[in-house]
Amino acid sequence: MTTTTTTPGGGVTPSARRRRPRPSWNRISFMLVFLVLPLAIFVIFVVSPFVQALYYSMTDWTGFSPNMNFVGLTNFVNLFQDTTFLKALRNNALLAVVVPFVTIVLALLIAIVVTVGGPSRGTIRGVRGAGFYRVISFFPYCVPAIVIGLIWAQVYDPAAGLLNGFLTAIGLDGFKNFAWLGVVATAMPASMWVIIWSFVGFYTVLFVAAIKGVPAELLEAARIDGAGRFRTAISVTIPMIRDNVQTAYIYLGIAALDAFVYMQALNPGGGPNNTTLTMSQELFNVAFRKGQFGYATAMGVVLALVTLLFAAIVFTVNRLTGGGDDSRRSSRVAPAAAPAPAAAAPTAAAAPIQKGGI
Question: Which has the least CB within 10 A, 104, 165, 195, 307?
Answer without folding.
Answer: 165
